[in-house]
Design goal:
Elements lengths: L1 E2 L5 E3 L11 H29 L4 H6 L5 H17 L9
Antiparallel strand pairs: 1-2
Amino acid sequence: MHTDELGLPLAVHIEPNEMRKDATYLASEVLRLCKQAARRADADRRVVLEQAGVPGAFLDQAGLPSHRSIAEEEAHEELEFEEQPRTWLRSV
């Protein structure tokens, strides 16, 4: 998946074995990855602004996350996402 800095998808590549999964699962995975990309871009933007001398308190108020908070969010999201069923169908 390639996104712009806002998390909008520019290119999506889905492996053939993933195409067998439930469409709702695939859509939620694409959306999750887009949001993740946008948050990572925000963290990169924060680093640039910190290096330019912008106070951390201002960046916090602007909602720009740190790379550490992004890593924590992503770990939490992965746990939640893995617990959800991928499909309600079963093999017969």
